[in-house]
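Problem 12. The chain below contains 223 residues. Write out its predicted structure in token notation.
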Amino acid sequence: MKRAVKAFIAVYFAVFMCFFGCMTAFAWDHDETWQRIGFENAPEGTEFVDLLVKAKGDDKYAVDFNEENGKLLGLDKDCELAEYDKDGYTSFLLRHGCVKFDSVHSGEAHYTYNTKNYKIFNELNRVKLAYCDSKGNILMVTNTADVGYAFFKTPVMYIFKADGESLAFSFGGATYSKLRSIIAVVAIAVLIVAVVLLFRFFERKLGKRSAEKSIQSGETDNE
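Solution.
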């Protein structure tokens, strides 16, 4: 009995340390108003890339034309990218007011946001990527990538990677780590509960057998 109790305490302590370590890891942070988009095998003449986004409902971030990004890119509202509106997909940089073009170099595009990224992409949850030339003409459009819903209000990285006509999305950062850690903690907790239940089961079995033996021993003595 004492050994079982000591083993249970040891496992409980291990789970506590694991959970505490996970909580410490959650403190890791990054800038939720900054976005990096990686791309490679772009068509010849590509000067920058833009996300083509589609809202799941009303697009509260939509604008007629983002003047600031237009000036930064040297484009006007009559360029092909600004006028693009196919199957509900429109330009992120030129038709939305929540994003600002930062830079593009070495196969990476950088944007900044005026709000946290999860607030944007929980709404604009379907995206494509457009390769554009210096005049805002679209040279190629990728496949659609569905953006996952961020359930936890903790920093999360939105990772977009394009390779030619292919676009992939994945989560990274604290929320992704948090989810994996929670699953690990829950799995360990379930294991502990299972061990405790088995311990109680065998304890009762042994107690019942001991009681039966005592009864049988008493009956034998009486005889």
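Discussion. The CA atoms of residues 29 and 162 lie 25 Å apart. Students who got a different answer should revisit the alignment rule from Section 12.3.
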